[in-house]
Amino acid sequence: MSEKPRKFKGGVHPNDSKALSAHKAIQTAPLYDTYKVIMHQNIGAPPELLVKKGDAVKKGSLLCKASGFVSVPLHAPTSGTVKLIDKVPGPTGVSVPCIVIEADGEDEWGSPFEPMADWRQTDPAELKQRVWDAGVVGMGGAGFPAHVKLSPPEDKPVDKLILNGAECEPYLTADHRLMLEQAEEVVLGAAILARILGLEGAVIGVESNKPDAIQALEKVAGEYNVEVASLPVNYPQGAEKQLIYAITGREVPVGKLPSDVGCVVQNVASAVAVAEAVVKGIPSIERITTVTGKPLNDPGNWKLRIGTPIDEVLKLAGGIKEQPAKLLLGGPMMGIAQSSLDVTVMKNTSGVLLIAKDEVSLYTSEPCIRCGRCVDCCPMQILPATISQAVENNRFDWAERLNVMACIECGSCSYSCPSHRPLNQQFKRAKVEIRAGLRK
Amino acid sequence: MSEETPDIRMPDPSKLMVSNSPHMRDKPTIDKIMLTVVAAMLPACIAAVLFFGLAALKVLVISTVSCILAEEGWNKLMKRPSTWRDGSAILSGILLGMNLNAGSPWWICVLGGLLAMILGKQLYGGLGYNPFNPVLVARVGLLIGFPGIMTTWHKPELGRMVIDGVTAATPLGLAPGETVLQDMILGNVGGCLGETSALALLIGGGILIWKKLIKWEVPLAFIGTVFVITGMMHLVNPEQYHSPFVHILSGGLLLGAFFMATDMVTSPMTHKGAWIFGLGCGLITSLIRLWGSYPEGVSFAILFMNALVPLIDRGTVRKPFGYVAPAKGEA
Asked: In this structure, is residue B330 part of a structural domain?
């Protein structure tokens, strides 16, 4: 990096607890009897179902096709039979349609894509089509279709490709291990993405608490004209807007997208999925997930097929020593708490985290003492305490004027509030109310 | 993996809690913040007892107990849950004691506690809702009601543990030139308990800034403004006006700037607001001290600026990250 990364204003420094799994090499999960593939795994339109009960499927064959531009196809994680198409509890608690596949144990590939070994000569449009066909989405957590980000509007030229390897969420180490163990694939993915965008190179942003990953990437980065930027350790460093600022100094305008400042951001795991789709012809049917938490016997990082039941995942980690207080999909700052073990691994499941009883404090929300801690740590530089007052008074117009829509829901304000006020929750509600008002 | 492995323990889903993110919380809670501020007050409390003797300790204890009882009494009366454990009443009590002089009779402390906790805090809705610093409401109330008692200062005497003492003047009441800076720094001067030792107050203030419990802009702007204005007047006429160092080290300026003006509830929330607030406090303090009829002006200045906090907050709403000014013609 020619320039030193800039530190964004605000942020918090939660205890990262990454030591539980950071030194554990990625292991591949065994083949299971049943996979429950949730149909809608991307932001945007749900894909269109192509199979029916009783159909035989091969590994990698299409289960669903994209239903529009902001939609991605879905592939079978293994070979077998479609046992059931039913509704199951999704990660947010709402029931979602799901394809249950009974594995035949053969794990036989269907008609996979042609590998494109000569990707350097392949037409960028063809590469982009491959990314779409392979069903690659943002694997950092958002699940935004990768090909959409690779199609910036013509009036907004992109000059910077950034790979997000910050992994600022406490506990999670999946991206860390991926960058360490598959540095070449990460860099290769970056180069392919750069070619699609018509760029010469890319920058990978990694928090400086992963020196081994940075070193591994730097060893191979030069070959593909990729740079590695060591970023300050500061949650939420991996948030898109904060990451862009750290690397380019550009501020994404409120309500706008990275392409408005000429940037495209892709997660490092998505880059690897792109590399595999292009070079090996493998669709997005697996991901690396950190399975961790103090209650687990053997935390670690596993390569899991999409659709792997969470109870199997917990068994991989040796089961529990003690009953956990919470089960989360994702990290402790932005992850979603689950009330059952019926959920399954999705393309954006970066972590399966068990929170011990002594790690949660049951608290009641107390009055705001105006200490200003939330104001100091807000990475979007809005005024959480004041907006919270507006929400409590049902003054959503006021909340909107105070820029609640700029909130990225990183949870830093709630994390730092000594009065345990539900700030993050209030802002989510305000955004829903304001959007509903706009629709009227 | 078809065989069951029964010895692996799995979570009981019925015992899983579901709540909104984030699922982690930083350690500080209201009571820890309040008690840290109390700890930062300790050097000044110790200095007070060293210089004014057991009489100072008596005032501190009665004030603190009064505040706790006043708060709890009100809660009982209003059938509200007990709140003294959040530490704010304890802190107010100690601050109240620091705002009284060592010779204060017990009933002044009790009355001060009632004024602070009920008139200054609970009538507005309790912790977090009071617009004025409760201790200053009490102090000014007492100052107006009992000016004689409130301005009779004890003579400091290092290490002599007395209950009663001899009266002495506060340095600001003396003519320029009669003051000894060294005494003021250490604390060998008359005044309220919390006015005596500049050194002890600076140590406490340093702790608060280091622990990020106060905005450093407030004391800096406050003290800096007083220094500049009184310094200019001293240059103009050293016969009539005290040196700026006397102004800074005497009276309640350090106590006010570090412990009263910085009260979270009653000061602005942004750093820009903190500058304005501190500047205003310094300006009003200087005006009262130089040309007003009271020798001291810190309490009035802070109370006045407290009243302006909602306006300051409104005027200092910051631009969010990535803010773009709306184009001309747009609403």
From this structure: no
Burial of A6 (0-12, 13-18, 19+ CB in 10 A): middle
Compute the distance between CA of residue A186 and CA of residue B47 in angstroms, rounded to an integer.
Answer: 63
Give DSSP secondary structure letters for A83-110: EEEEEEE-TTSSEEEEEEEEE-S---B-
DSSP-assigned letters across all residues of A231-291: EP--BTTTSHHHHHHHHH-PPPPTT--GGGGTEEEEEHHHHHHHHIIIII---S-EEEEEE
ipTM topping 0.90: no
User: pTM value?
Assistant: 0.89
Task: Say whether A327 and B24 touch across the interface (CB within 8 A).
Answer: no
CA distance A173 to A181: 12
Alpha helices in A66-199 (DSSP H): 124-133, 146-149, 174-181, 183-197
Under 8 Å between Cβ of A149 and A264? yes
Counting the structural domains of chain B, the total is 1
Q: Among B112, B158, B157, which Cα is nearest to B137's?
A: B112
The nearest CA of chain A is from the CA of B128 a distance in Å of 4
Q: Which residues of A touch B33 (CB under 8 A)?
A: 369, 371, 418
Domain ranges of chain A: 115-280, 373-439
Asked whether residue B178 is assigned to any structural domain, the reply reads yes
Nearest CA in chain B to A425: B20
What is the span of the domain harbouring residue B83?
30-316
Of A93, A372, A417, Cβ closest to residue B269: A372
> Is the Cβ–Cβ distance between A271 and A163 less than 8 Å?
yes
Cβ neighbours, 10 Å, residue B118: 18
Local confidence pLDDT in tens for the 331 residues of chain B: 445 556 788 888 889 888 888 999 888 889 999 999 999 999 999 999 988 888 899 999 999 999 999 999 999 999 999 998 899 999 999 999 999 988 889 999 999 999 999 999 999 999 999 999 999 999 999 999 998 888 777 777 766 665 555 666 676 766 666 666 777 777 777 778 888 888 999 999 999 999 999 999 999 999 999 999 999 999 998 888 888 988 888 778 999 999 999 999 999 999 999 999 999 999 999 999 998 877 778 999 999 999 999 999 999 988 899 887 766 654 4
Q: Is there a contact between B113 and B66 (Cβ–Cβ < 8 Å)? A: yes
Give the CATH number for residue B239.
1.10.3430
- Å from A276 to nearest chain B CA? 27
How far is it, in rounded angstroms, from Cα B86 to Cα A102?
57
Alpha carbon of B213: minimum distance to chain A alpha carbons (Å)? 8
CA geometry: angle B74, B76, B79, nearest 5 deg: 105
Pick the CATH number of A115-280 from 3.40.50.450, 3.40.190.10, 3.40.50.11540, 3.30.70.20: 3.40.50.11540
Which residues is A80 bridged to in the sheet? A57, A103
Is position B5 within any domain? no
- For residue A59, the 8-state DSSP code is B
Q: Helices B134-145 and B106-114 meet at what angle, rounded to 10?
A: 130
Residues of chain A neighbouring B318 (CB-CB closer than 8 A): 381-383
CB distance B195 to B185 below 8 Å: no
Whether B292 maps to a domain, the answer reads: yes
